[in-house]
Design brief:
alpha/beta, 5-stranded parallel beta sheet, 4-stranded parallel beta sheet, 20 helices, 32% helix, binds flavin-adenine dinucleotide
Length: 693
């Protein structure tokens, strides 16, 4: 170990300032200063909204740590944990293996991380804005929405592409809404099909005023100015859920193709794992910023709860405070090294600045209040001089001056989104796939149900062809054949879906034998070449009434508490090949077939084993309101000879059951025996299947 080593975890405003001050005093004294940051740059987060709105280039909002911190050893490994008792950290080496490094002092400056899980569906459908990567993805998305709107001939859909929703009325939400509004409205003139009245930018905030940190007059000014520029304010409105179509409020639904979430943050994992007292996920410190009960461990910035000696309040999680804490923490470490007493953290806020778009800002500085263009000019000037290097200042100043004269850059770099496996949440009626779209993903239903809907000249509004439930998948055929989707898929109930990108799907389906087999089975089942895919057969199915095929449920209904012995006796005394299971005598809780019974007996289960342990829970069902087209598709999809019928998918009250054989017999009566009678009913190919020839 070097004579003395100081380790800083996190290269944000706090960590960088701390490293700079330490390096200035110690680098010639043989003290090793090591800064760990996952990225090799500092993100200047107050400018992220400008990067989203194309008024700054993405590279202008980051500064490389190596060039910023001469004399500091910068490392990009992620620190996994800090052992305060042993004075060492564990980090992930280049080979993924854990490694340790001992320290004399450690400074935790790892900020916090976005947490979109604060609202159901938000993590699946909204964009966060925390890293420069987030800003790049959001900017590309906004520009691609404008490109789609330009070529879209459906006015409602075009308005949806041009509707942008920003959740959160704090600094980052207000700046982001202002920048998106400026970008989209000022660029509309370059698109022949985008009209100003088709554009909506909505800012949703849970309180009655934006920007709680500044004075009421300035808040009011910001609101009025933004509304005038075209931003719709929804105040006192709490977002309850986010879907692929927009966000749900208590009594309203705001539609939009872009949702930006600026609320919600959570503790960084390394802090979570730390054995040190915390309040609301922030590390509690002494007045001098040392962790409670520790001599050589310090915490600063957003990850720390530091009491400010000026007002005796916890310091807010802002860049301004993080930087001051970083400076003073370094000074306190220097004092400890010299054997002097440390000082409590004390900082008087210099002012607040917030850009609201349209070359306007609100500012409170040194007791003065400023709004409008001069506030915006001051805002830009202050941030320009806050940028840590002269080269960045010149670059950013040049970009800003350029945009005062020339329009924003609308080039949209497609980084072809990395293939990922994600979880998506859909509300009833949300579209997961739209007919005609190019195939990009494969979907597995985790919970809930979806319906396959195809629009045809006879049914332009779309006909429900099939219903798929938990455990089913869709989207494979279009991916494998690289054909546009032949049908839409819509959530029928609230649905949780696993979405797999094309490359992940291809590599897994090629290497994982069970998935390969399941896919082959689905492709054969769903291939559009069966007798029942013929127009006459499909027309006949449309005419049939499902009620004519429903038979009473086999008697008796079994309770889930019935024992293996009881069930064996009941099968012996009755001819039915299966029985339905219900706890209350109404709702379908499960099924038991002769095969299930034989399996249970072969497994040597004790005779008193309750039925709920060996029945089929949550079986595939047909709803009484389904069409015969859907029922035939369900028989084909599940390969069953009979299926239970319930009143609807939510309540699952038992109505009876239906046999595939009866349906086939009726079809034969109506259209005559097909030459491929051995095939199971199959009305239409599912989405993604190549079109029938
Ligand atoms: C969009 C946006 C706009 C904002 N606008 C303003 C504003 O106008 N004014 C203002 O004062 N504040 C603003 N803020 C808040 C400000 O950015 C934060 O308060 C500030 O960045 C906190 O600094 P920090 O040093 O604590 O952490 P951060 O700046 O978050 O840096 C933490 C760093 O630690 C790294 N890290 C975390 N864990 C590990 C690990 N285990 N190993 C290695 N590295 C790790 C992270 O990668 C990150 O680089 C804004 C924030 C955002 C997101």
């Amino acid at each position: 170990m070097a004579t003395h080593r100081i380790v800083i975890v996190g290269g944000g405003f706090g960590g960088v300032k701390c490293a700079q001050v330490l390096a200035k005093s110690l680098r010639r004294n043989g003290v090793e200063i090591v800064l760990f940051n996952k990225e090799n740059h500092l993100v200047f987060s107050p400018l992220l909204a400008d990067a989203v709105g194309s008024s700054l280039s993405l590279l202008d909002v980051i500064v490389p740590l190596r060039q910023l911190l001469p004399g500091v050893i910068c490392r990009t490994e992620e620190v996994r944990s800090v052992d305060l008792a042993a004075s060492s950290i564990e980090y992930e080496g280049f080979d993924g293996q854990p490694r340790r490094l001992e320290y004399n002092h450690v400074v935790l400056a790892c900020g916090n991380i976005s947490n979109l899980n604060v609202v159901p569906g938000m993590s699946d459908h909204a964009f966060p804005l925390k890293t420069v990567g987030d800003a790049a993805v959001l900017r590309t998305h906004i520009l691609s929405m404008m490109e789609k709107a330009e070529v879209c001939d459906d006015p409602a859909k075009r308005r949806w592409f041009l509707s942008f929703i920003v959740v959160g009325g704090g600094y980052s939400g207000v700046e982001t809404a202002g920048e998106i509004n400026d970008l989209v409205r000022s660029s509309a003139r370059f698109y022949s099909n985008i009209r100003n009245e088709d554009i909506t930018v909505t800012l949703i905030h849970s309180r009655d005023q934006l920007l709680p940190e500044i004075s009421p007059q300035l808040r009011e000014f910001a609101r009025e100015k933004m509304e005038k520029a075209g931003v719709t304010m929804k105040l006192n409105a709490r977002v309850q859920l986010a879907t692929g179509e927009g966000v749900g409020l208590k009594d309203d639904f705001v539609h939009g193709g872009t949702i930006v979430c600026t609320i919600g943050s959570t503790t960084a994992p390394v802090v979570k794992r730390l054995d040190s007292p915390q309040e609301k996920g922030r590390l509690l410190t002494n007045a001098d910023m040392r962790l409670r009960g520790r001599d050589n461990a310090w915490a600063i910035g957003d990850c720390a709860n530091i009491i400010n000696a000026v007002d005796h309040q916890p310091s807010p999680p802002t860049g301004q405070f993080a930087e001051r804490e970083g400076r003073q923490c370094a000074e306190n470490i220097l004092r400890v090294l010299r054997g002097e007493p440390t000082r409590p953290f004390a900082f008087k806020v210099l002012g607040q600045l917030c850009s609201i778009g349209g070359h306007s800002a609100v500012a409170e500085m040194f007791g003065f209040r400023l709004s409008g263009f001069w506030a915006w000019f001051t805002w830009r000037g202050v941030y320009l001089f806050k940028l840590p290097t002269w080269s960045r200042r010149v670059q950013v100043g040049f970009d800003w001056a350029w945009l005062l004269v020339f329009p924003r850059d609308l080039s949209c770099i497609k980084t072809d989104t990395t293939d990922r496996v994600t979880h998506a949440h859909y509300e009833p009626g949300d579209y997961i796939i739209r007919q005609g779209e190019p195939p990009t993903s494969f979907f597995v239903i985790e919970q809930g149900e979806v319906e396959i809907v195809r629009a045809t000249p006879e049914h332009p509004e779309g006909e429900v062809l099939a219903v798929l439930g938990a455990g089913n998948f869709f989207g494979e055929a279009a991916l494998l054949s690289n054909q546009p989707r032949t049908a839409s898929v819509r959530a029928r109930t609230t649905a949780e879906i696993v979405v797999m990108g094309r490359h992940v799907f291809t590599s897994i389906s090629e290497s994982l034998a069970p998935l390969k087999q399941a896919l082959m089975g689905a492709i054969t089942r769903r291939a559009p070449n069966s007798a029942l895919d013929r127009p006459r057969v499909r027309a006949a199915l449309r005419e049939f009434k499902l009620a004519d095929f429903i038979e009473p449920a086999p008697s008796p209904l079994l309770a889930p508490t019935a024992t293996l012995l009881d069930v064996t006796r009941i099968f012996g005394e009755n001819e039915a090949p299966f029985f339905m299971v219900s706890a209350d005598g109404k709702r379908l809780d499960g099924l038991v077939t002769l095969t299930d019974l034989l399996h249970a007996q072969a497994s040597n289960l004790p005779p008193e084993t309750p039925l709920k342990d060996f029945m089929v829970g949550n079986p595939a069902i047909i709803a009484a309101s389904d069409s015969c087209v859907v029922a035939a598709s369900a028989f084909r999809e599940h390969g069953h000879k009979w299926m239970p019928v319930v009143d609807d998918r939510e309540h699952r009250q038992i109505v009876g059951f239906m046999r595939a054989r009866k349906l086939i017999a009726r079809i034969m009566q109506v259209v005559g025996p097909p030459n491929t009678l051995t095939q199971a009913p199959m009305p239409d190919p599912p989405p993604g299947a190549p079109p029938a020839s």
